[in-house]
Amino acid sequence: xxxxIAAVLFGVCGVAQAQVLTLADVKAKNAVQLSxxxxxxxxxxxxxxxxxxxxxxxxxxxxxxxxxxxxSDSKGVAAGRTRMxxxxxxxxxxxNGRYCVTIKWSLTSSEEWCRYIFKEGDQYYGFGKLxxxxxATAFEFxx
Length: 143
Description:
The chain has 143 residues and is α+β, with helices and mostly antiparallel strands. The chain has one domain: Lipocalin, CATH 2.40.128. The chain contains 3 helices and 9 strands. The protein has an 8-stranded antiparallel β-barrel with strand order 2-3-4-5-6-7-8-9. A hairpin with a 5-residue loop joins β3 and β4. The longest helix has 18 residues, at 2-19. It is globular, with a radius of gyration of 17 Å. The chain starts with a helix and ends with a strand.
């Protein structure tokens, strides 16, 4: 019985660790960092899906005027329960090549962040800093 419990616990820990990618992991996949010019082509009118490390999925469409309305299932915020919320947001591409977002959520506090965006195949990853141990945020961008 102990062996089964230990095997399950080690398996769960291994899965949890495998889900968190770092910049070093993404660079090892030969991902390419998108430049400010790349982002200025990609971001206007892009449909965005952002997957947080806490388990939330947020969605919005970047307006050409720099605004959007986001929705979130708020997983990881509401004690693991799904609780839909919406928020008014703005986006911009910074001169240093970061995708920057501000969202004022209706049910929770506001958030403001900038991410360097890397592309590997059809996968996108965002990083708050360009250090090998920085944790990835998964993104989907489509037109």
